[in-house]
Design a protein that fits this description.
heterodimer, A: 80 residues, alpha+beta, Translation Initiation Factor IF3, 4 strands, 35% strand, B: 194 residues, alpha/beta, four-stranded parallel beta sheet, elongated
């Protein structure tokens, strides 16, 4: 298990497309380059969306996890 | 007499000669590449229907959130969506006022293109959206403005419907014409006509 030094968190649980991405983009705007941002989401479409969004923006998707018990996706993104 | 024999390994020598070359080449190659540039996105928001307004705003916010320079051209019924919610009757003459009376302007008063059923359809859409955590068009509009989406009202539509700057929501850009949009498209912007 890897421990990440998280700089900011985005809680997008219960939100549908496109709000998880919109909220993460707003958090990325406030973060410093190299900062790690943790995103919690429950939208199953977010698995593909965060990969695509990172490719477009150049941020790095460091880790992605799914908590099967709660259906919560957890993404760790390193700001460009 | 002892002759020194040097065993030459051509491969090892070639590798030694090439040391640092691949890295230098890779660096030079990277430097020669133009920085990856996103294309601008231009949405032509023509329809005033609830579902199409919704789709336009979802795409606009996502594009802006992806670091893409996003512009929305508001024309015909798409412009009426961006009249202040509080305005009931707009226009200068009887016919313009009649049109506003027939179709209430403002983002919170959009109708579905099909199965509107006197507002029952949009009301049910609203309930379902709330249940599923879907942001309303109004919330998406706020997000779009916060993310720097540029709204370009159509001057011709403003004139035709008798709309003034005071009728419109805050934060819209200066009214423009079709040539401004065509220039953006000609410069390679991705475009959607919704």
């Amino acid at each position: 298990m890897t421990l990440f030094q998280i700089a900011s968190r985005v809680d997008a649980r219960g939100l549908s497309c496109p709000m998880p991405i919109v909220k993460t983009a707003q958090a990325a705007k406030l973060a410093a380059p190299g900062d790690l941002i943790e995103v919690l989401a429950t939208d199953p479409g977010s698995t593909k969306d965060f990969v695509a969004w990172c490719r477009t923006t150049g941020h790095e998707l460091v880790n992605q996890d799914l908590d099967l018990a709660t259906g919560t996706y957890c993404y760790v993104i390193r700001r460009k | 007499m002892i002759t020194e024999t040097r065993h030459v390994d051509p491969l090892a020598e070639a590798i030694a000669d090439a040391e640092g070359v691949p890295e230098a080449f890779a660096q030079a190659f990277e430097a020669a590449q133009p920085a990856r540039q996103n294309r601008d996105l231009v949405l032509i928001c023509y329809s005033g229907d609830l579902e199409k307004t919704w789709a336009s705003l979802i795409l606009a916010t996502t594009a802006a959130a992806s670091g893409i320079n996003t512009k929305i051209f508001l024309t015909f019924w798409g412009l009426q969506t961006f009249v202040k919610d509080s305005k009931r009757i707009t226009g200068q003459n009887a016919m313009q006022k009649m049109l506003a009376l027939m179709q209430r302007p403002g983002i919170s008063h959009r109708k579905l293109s099909k199965m509107n059923f006197l507002g029952m359809g949009p009301w049910m859409m609203g309930v379902l959206a709330k249940e599923h955590g879907v942001a309303s068009p109004k919330e998406l509009l706020e997000a779009a403005q916060a993310l720097g989406v540029e709204f370009m009202p159509c001057q011709m539509t403003m004139d035709m419907f008798g709309l003034t700057k005071a009728d419109m929501i805050d934060g819209l850009g200066e009214p423009v014409g079709a040539a401004t949009v065509i220039e953006l498209l000609n410069n390679g912007a991705a475009s959607l006509f919704i």
